[in-house]
Design a protein that fits this description.
Layout lengths: L8 H9 L2 H19 L8 H22 L4 H30 L9 H5 L2 H10 L2 H12 L2 E5 L2 E4 L4 H6 L6 E2 L21 H13 L3 H24 L5 E2 H18 L5 H4 L4 H16 L3 H9 L5 H20 L9 H10 L9 H32 L1 H14 L9 H6 L1 H13 L9 E2 L5 E3 L2 E3 L4 E3 L2 H5 L20 H4 L19 H18 E5 L6 H5 L2 E3 L1 E3 L4 E6 L4
Parallel strand pairs: 2-8
Antiparallel strand pairs: 1-2, 3-5, 4-12, 5-8, 6-7, 9-12, 10-11
Helix pairs in contact: 1-3, 2-4, 3-4, 10-11, 10-23, 11-17, 13-15, 15-17, 16-17, 17-18, 17-20, 17-23
Bound molecules: protoporphyrin IX containing FE (HEM).
């Protein structure tokens, strides 16, 4: 029976009366034909509709068998199940054969199962939620170009960085960014895949991070740092979980400069319930984001994202409060006010809908606080682990501000370039995004050194791997902040790949805000405290148990802060 006739009335009538074998063969052939038909379509975006259609088709076929044939309801269901199973078998076998033997990436080495399905990567990620380590293992085993998915390549070459991420790159955001939905009118800037839509929206965002805007944020972040220091002082000599406290600090900073509001996390010293809800689901995200269409599918099922609803509602209420309290006549004082201004004025750079505006507000909090918190906690971990480096920093801040914190000014902090060397070295070794962003190559493909990468291939340069690679960094796994300072030339730092904030059109707009926050806090801590591991804390768990949840989820880190004795 021809595959096409299987769907016609006569075909179904015939199938209802026929033996199982012709039905199975016809459905399997239809599965193969269907695969050929969808092979060049980005099917990820259609998965939800496909699933819904599959269920409807199954019910329809079973009903038709029952009404046209001489089958009992159970017999009709059985035969429809046979047809469905055969269709899926034909589809899956066709996909498998194509991916293994005919796909444009077939010549690239990689794990056998990764070539067949991204569920393999989800399984790797599910082991310990440390996908970045799995990526490193794949690179060590298969080389610089590894097929990590049916249409995905890992590329561990420095020359790939400007071509994939640089300002002139023709690569765009990949299907990874379709995981929360495929409607560009409803998603955040981070998930906006259309290049022009993204470029326009970035204008509103970039205004919130301009030099003028940052100068208004500086004293407000300093006030948060002062509050943070007073909490350290109240608990001096006692163990404090700095993974948690770094988050309280950066969450409050995002409240202040993101929304112009006090989120009161530093005062309460307890994780905000909205953030706690997000953290609880980070592990699931770390695993499922390896199969973006599945995450998208699950998110489309009513109630499936209920775990996040607390956070979503809370962010929604923050935006609504802001819309009420906001004065359009006043020069915007925070990031969300810039977004609201564009939205109210119906500017081309505006979030395209109320939903997109809400999604953007969530990005302000997650992208802004998680990353900075992770980076701050990591720096403090390095201080406890390398006391000599911390002593050196204390000597330098003392020299810049001999009268201590009373003489603190941001200009003086900027003169202590060793602070930036430490921040850079921490972000090199333990970047806030361990694996990094995924891009898709343009139709004509790209060339990385001697290797041609076909068009429409998802590609990524694993961030931690490339930033610690012995080929590019001398003593690449060691903490040597001076490689960004006085030893820059000797260590060849300028030639080495470094992209903790990514590069080009999709790079982090919050980079300067993050650096501002980190410089302010680090300088205060160095001026005021000695830092060490709490009794019983070795720092091993913090080092080894980190979770790759796109942004990083940290293990607890118990540190003790003791006020410095000034001579
Ligand atoms: C140390 C701190 C930070 C690091 C290491 C960092 C890193 C990054 C990286 C690597 C990306 C690119 C992600 C991708 O390719 O998918 C990114 C994007 C982004 N970051 Fe940051 N970030 C930090 C702080 C911040 C802050 C404070 C904000 C403020 C709200 C922020 C807002 C964003 C936004 C909105 C995007 C999406 C940009 C776009 O798609 O155009 N980040 N960040």
């Amino acid at each position: 029976m021809a595959a096409s006739s299987a769907l016609s009335l006569e075909g179904l009538q015939g199938a209802a009366h026929a033996n199982a074998l012709p039905t199975a063969l016809a459905a399997a052939s239809f599965g193969v034909v269907f695969h050929q038909f969808i092979r060049n379509i980005e099917f990820d975006a259609l998965m939800y509709h496909f699933m819904a259609l599959s269920i409807a088709a199954f019910v329809g076929i079973a009903y038709t068998y029952f009404s046209l044939g001489e089958l009992s309801p159970i017999g009709a269901l059985g035969k429809a199940s046979l047809a469905a199973a055969s269709f899926n078998a034909g589809l899956i076998v066709s996909i498998g054969i194509y991916r293994l033997f005919f796909h444009r990436l077939r010549r690239f080495p990689g794990p056998f199962w990764a070539k067949l399905s991204r569920f393999y990567n989800a399984r790797l990620a599910a082991k310990n939620v440390q996908y970045f380590k799995e990526v490193e293992k794949m690179h060590e085993k298969y080389g610089d170009f590894v097929r990590t998915g049916p249409r995905e390549l890992l590329i561990a070459r420095k020359s790939a960085v400007p071509i994939i991420y640089g300002p002139n790159s023709e690569c765009r955001k990949s299907t990874w960014y379709g995981q929360t939905g495929n409607d560009p009118k409803k998603c955040s800037i981070h998930m906006t895949r259309d290049f022009n839509d993204h470029r326009l929206r970035r204008r509103a965002w970039d205004k919130g991070f301009s030099i003028k805007a940052l100068s208004t944020y500086e004293p407000r972040i300093k006030a948060k740092a002062d509050l943070f220091m007073s909490q350290l002082s109240q608990r001096s000599g006692q163990p404090m979980d700095m993974s948690a406290w770094s988050m309280f600090f950066s969450f409050d900073v995002m409240g202040e400069v993101g929304f112009g509001k006090d989120f009161n996390n530093l005062t309460s010293g307890v994780e905000h319930p909205a953030i706690a809800a997000v953290h609880e689901h980070m592990t699931m995200l770390g695993v499922l984001s390896n199969v973006p269409w599945l995450l998208n599918l699950l998110g489309s099922i009513p109630g499936a994202a209920a775990g996040y609803s607390g956070f979503f509602n809370w962010c929604g209420s923050q935006i609504k409060d802001k819309q009420k309290s906001w004065d359009p006549e006043k020069y915007p004082q925070d990031i969300v006010s810039w977004l609201l201004k564009a939205f109210n004025e119906k500017d081309v750079s505006s979030s395209p809908s109320e939903e997109a505006l809400h999604d953007d507000s969530r990005v302000v909090i997650i992208a802004g606080s998680e990353t900075t918190a992770t980076s701050l906690a990591t720096i403090l971990w390095y201080f406890a682990k390398y006391p000599a480096t911390f002593k050196k920093l204390q000597g330098l801040v003392d020299k810049a501000m001999p009268g201590g914190v009373a003489e603190w000014s941001y200009d003086k902090v900027k003169s202590v370039t060793f602070i930036d060397d430490i921040i850079n070295e921490s972000l090199r070794l333990k970047p806030a995004l361990l694996t990094g962003g995924y891009r898709v190559t343009p139709a004509k493909g790209i060339k990385i050194d001697e290797v041609y990468i076909p068009g429409d291939t998802n590609v990524f340069v694993p961030m931690q791997v490339i930033q610690t690679h012995p080929r590019y960094y001398k003593q690449g796994k060691e903490f040597i902040p001076e490689r960004f300072g006085e030893r820059r030339e000797e260590m060849g730092t300028d030639e080495a790949p470094f992209l903790p904030f990514s590069l080009g059109a999709y790079s982090c707009p919050g980079k300067n805000l993050a650096l501002l926050s980190l410089r302010i806090t680090v300088s205060h801590i160095a001026l005021l405290y000695d830092v060490g591991f709490a009794p019983g804390e070795t720092g091993k768990a913090f080092d080894e148990d980190v979770l790759d949840t796109f942004t990083t989820t940290l293990a607890p880190l118990q540190l003790v802060f003791t006020p410095r004795e000034r001579k």
